[in-house]
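Incident log, support desk, overnight shift.

02:14 A customer reports that sequence design results differ from what the structure should imply. Their input is reproduced verbatim below. On-call engineer (initials T.W.) acknowledged and began investigating.
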């Protein structure tokens, strides 16, 4: 259900940057460790976007794999299940290198037509 709050955050961020222009697409970068269900996120985005400049906008997302990095030997590897031990040196001093992202990468907006009056 956290997709509802994430959708609200997306709409709030986009509205702030759209400067009143109608938004046609929102591109996201979502890390695998965020455990976001794309269909649920899209459903809530459509719901939250109603009545805003985001209404009717496409929600596009790039899924980023989860990766860990060993602080001892600097080895980096992708993971499906977090196993916090370096497969190269066996060290346990590791950190998440990627997979925790949730970012609005870009937005597409309609340009308003400026009509000159004589």
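02:41 Re-run completed on a clean worker. Output:
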């Amino acid at each position: 259900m956290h997709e509802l709050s994430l959708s609200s955050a997306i709409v709030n961020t986009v509205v702030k940057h759209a400067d009143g222009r109608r938004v046609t697409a929102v591109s996201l970068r979502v890390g695998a460790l965020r455990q976001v269900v794309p269909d649920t996120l899209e459903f809530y985005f459509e719901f939250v976007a109603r009545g805003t400049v985001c209404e009717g906008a496409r929600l596009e997302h790039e899924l980023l794999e989860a990766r860990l990095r060993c602080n001892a030997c600097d080895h980096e590897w992708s993971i499906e299940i977090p196993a916090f031990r370096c497969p190269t040196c066996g060290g346990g001093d590791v950190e998440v290198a990627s997979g925790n992202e949730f970012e609005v990468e870009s937005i597409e907006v309609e340009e308003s037509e400026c009509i000159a009056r004589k």
